[in-house]
């Protein structure tokens, strides 16, 4: 499954008319991962056909996949309540911390 398909599934978006916007938000999330130390996240722009394993190792895949989907959700499909938004933002902060720690310790081999 492609990155775009996974993000669309995570956001429950079945319409292709949002693909360009979603790809832009996905690329933005990848840029943030690159700033956190995930080197391959900055290497190639994400396209309609990009797959997760083009960018991430098995060790980093789940953290990075969760981060990208959650980050796009906040930017593209804002939760309807402040409680949901706060929960997602706290989840994102936890994921960012874990990604940064893994990158700093050399656990992520991306």
Describe the structure.
It is a single chain. This protein is mostly helical and 110 residues long. The protein has 4 helices and no strands. It has helices at 3-11, 19-35, 58-76, 82-105. α3 (58-76) runs antiparallel to α4. The protein is globular and about 40 Å long. The two termini are 19 Å apart. The model has no long low-confidence stretch (mean pLDDT 90).
Task: Identify the notable features of this structure and list them briefly.
110 residues; mainly alpha; globular
The proportion of residues in beta strands is under 5%
Helix/sheet category: mainly alpha
Taken from the alpha-carbon principal axes, the silhouette is: globular
Rounded mean pLDDT is 90
Q: What's the number of extended β-strand segments? A: 0
Number of helices: 4
- Report the order of strands and helices: HHHH
What profile does the largest beta sheet have? Answer: none
Percent in helix: 55-70%
Rg is 13 Å
Distance between the termini: 19 Å
Low-confidence spans: pLDDT under 50, at least 5 residues?
Answer: none
Brief sketch in words of this structure:
This protein has about 110 residues and is mainly alpha-helical. The chain has helices spanning about 5-10, 20-35, 60-75, 80-105.
Topology:
Layout: H1 3-11, H2 19-35, H3 58-76, H4 82-105
């Amino acid at each position: 499954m492609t990155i775009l398909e996974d993000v669309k599934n995570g956001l429950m978006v079945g319409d292709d008319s949002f693909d360009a916007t979603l790809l832009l938000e996905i690329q933005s999330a990848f840029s943030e991962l690159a700033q956190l130390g995930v080197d391959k996240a900055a290497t190639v722009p994400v396209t309609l056909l990009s797959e997760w394993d083009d960018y991430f190792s098995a060790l980093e895949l789940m953290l990075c996949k969760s981060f990208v989907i959650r980050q796009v959700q906040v930017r593209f499909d804002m939760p309807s309540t402040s409680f949901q938004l706060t929960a997602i933002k706290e989840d994102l902060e936890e994921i960012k911390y874990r990604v940064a720690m893994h990158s700093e310790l050399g656990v992520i081999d991306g």
